[in-house]
Amino acid sequence: MLEIKNVTKIFNGGTVNEKVALSDVSLTLEDGDFVTVIGGNGAGKSTILNMVAGVYPVDKGSIVIDGVDVTRLPEHKRAKYIGRVFQDPMMGTAADMWVEENLAIADRRGKTRGFKWAITKKDKAKYREELKELDLGLDTRMTTKMGLLSGGQRQAITLLMATLKRPKLLLLDEHTAALDPKTAAKVLEITDRLVKENSLTALMVTHNMKDAIAYGNRLIMMNAGKIILDVRGEEKKNLTIEALLEMFTKASGAEFASDRALLS
Amino acid sequence: MEFLTEFFGYLGGTAPSIAAQGMIWGIMAIGVFITFRILDIADLTVDGSIVTGAAVCIIAFQSGMNIWVAILLSTLAGMLCGLVTGLLHTALGIPPILAGILTQQSLWTVNLLLAGSSLSFTFFEQDLLPIVPLEERIGNTDLILLGFVAVVIAILYWFFGTELGASLRATGNNPNMSRAQGINTNFAKVLGLVISNGIVALSGALLVQYSNGYNINMGRGAIVIGLAAVVVGEAIVSKISSGFIPRLIGVVLGGVIYFLVYQLVLFFDIKAELLKMLSAAIIAIFLGAPYLKKRYGKKKAQKEVKSNA
């Protein structure tokens, strides 16, 4: 479904601030893979997602989604294949537009936007049903401005927007990191349900090792712009945080550097 | 008493012209609203494109075209101005404010060339520009202009209700989210600037008919008048409704209020030159007040939290 082939990304190349964010990274996701990505700060987790989404161009290598080489496609054209949820709950929705208007925008992802009404009665009925399933009481707030909702509510709706038109690939960039633990758990639960119901292929970056182990069928660990660990199937199910930390030390030759990951 | 009679007599006498000029500049302010409020861009092209609209209208009409065709050509010329600013910004990566200034500067030359190198001129034939005639200003003119206002608002209401229009609103609101949802934000910005400057040039075409004269400097400070109309109009209407049509009506009302203040300035023999500074001050106050309120409000809230702890 997704093929990342030998991708390298260097920021501020040729200056004293040169930073190798990704170094010759290759990764192949099968159809239906739900991969969790962990690693310390600056390991390249978010960069790999941004490369796939087309936020900035790759320096070397190529990215293929479902047989289509998207390496040279701009961000908005790749959106046809990709649903995204960001770390910042403000980033995934338009704050001054209504809940239903946001959903309508997402419902046209990958289509040409013309002179048809942006939202129809049929759309509204559909969105109401979808919102009901989130079970957050949002189906009664369809004409509330997005900016008036809480971070958790906004992330839940962003998730819905990312999956409303079934994407070939779902990219989740630490989408629960800015939420309180209880809300984070709820949003993760919704994530898991949406991924399973739609049998989506997903990449989920997280700081939380427990979540990385609990969700998905495959786990990759990154360090200094490289993938240093790739665990799947039964082996992943039996992972513990201790075992992960040990593997990290062995694979990278250093102590795991993120305090946040240890604490959570 | 005598003063009041004189005052209201004066206001009554100038009311039709206040309404007419207010509506013409109100249409212009709707153009500013699209860039400033919907796209979140302060577009300075308008100081030039309003004059281009005026110049094209005169030239087209004097060359024997129907006045409606002349007005249409003005609008198209304004759209072209917006296209230039849009491409400077999106294709060349120039910051939008600077892109607007560059187009505005170039338009000064263009406008001068269009008008045959004369800085200003007046028409003497009464029926030269028949939609807003000089001799029948009172009554008819206001109705005609009201018609223009209604049509512009109706078209924009329709447009921003479509999928394409919604993509423009989303772009101004959150470009990151818009791209993630497959919206070409560069295209949306260019389209918004094109529509905005088309409306601004339309108001220029009406303005030149109303004032019965063309002046290369007639657009100087247009952006300030437009912004003043937008912020004043929004301040009035936001108390009643947040709907799109009420907001646009508010913007036109803002234009009318601007010319009401203008007439008061004239009545009290205050120098008209002061008005530009007054407009700038009004914008600064209306844009600055919510910001200060937010900051001050926050500090207060923090203090309360501290005192509770």
Low-pLDDT parts of chain B are none
Multimerization state: heterodimer
State the secondary-structure class of chain A.
alpha/beta
The figure for the number of domains of chain A is: 1
Total of domains of chain B = 1
Strand arrangement within the widest β-sheet of chain A reads: 6-7-8-3-9-10
Which range best describes the helical content of chain B: under 10%, 10-25%, 25-40%, 40-55%, 55-70% or over 70%?
over 70%
CATH fold group of chain A: Rossmann fold
Most extensive contact: A-B, 34 and 21 residues
Report Rg of chain B.
21 Å
Describe this structure in words.
The complex is a heterodimer of chains A (264) and B (309). A 6-stranded mixed β-sheet of chain A has the order 6-7-8-3-9-10, sandwiched between helices. Chain A has a single domain, classed as Rossmann fold. The model of chain A has no long low-confidence stretch (mean pLDDT 91). Chain A has 10 helices and 10 strands. With 264 residues, chain A is α/β, with parallel strands linked by helices. Chain B has one domain. Chain B has a two-stranded antiparallel sheet.
